[in-house]
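ugh ok fine here u go
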Amino acid sequence: MDFSEWEPVYEAILADFGFDRAGDERARDELAALVTSPYRPDNDRFTGQSVAVAGAAPTLESEADLARDADAVVAASTAADRLVAAGVDVDWVVTDLDKHGERVAAFTREGTPVAVHAHGDNRDLLAEHVPDCDVERLLPTTQAAPVDPVVNYGGFTDGDRAAFLADRLGAADLVFPGWDFEAATGPKARKLAWAERLLYWLERRRGERFAVLDGRRGAIDTAWLPVE
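structure:
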């Protein structure tokens, strides 16, 4: 995805939450300074493969077979730790470090690529945990304009960023264990509403129907949707 495609959606998110774009840009620049030789995945890494995009909802363990049966797993945040504990291999972790920074560093050192995201509210976590990571397994990401070596593949929450990453790496189809759009209240619920909107946009872009959105599409706010 070119940033020109993402930017109108990003601006809608900023306006909805009152976030400071300059804060995202400062975090992006600080992450760039911490990462000297970032990992760059092959864009065909998941070509022809079914990819499980794992969320961290309470249902994850009961739906772990969806991940186990997929060809690859991209896990959002602590979903990675929980799947590993359930005996499911994880191929990628996508996180903004808000819950498991030490474990993220361990994933990179063990050879699992991690997309570490910079935004205006996690600059302290970046400074604390990124130096402990193996940068050869660390993909630095931003929701603002990309600045080398930091990339922007699209997405807002860890979960929908994981889906956009899987798409970027050529996934043939996506399944979604551990997702529950009704599992949160307050600011988290608003973020999940955006995750749902972004997955709706992604499935339209891919020409695919995600089962996780079945029964929900009619109520999704599409006023922000870019003209196609």
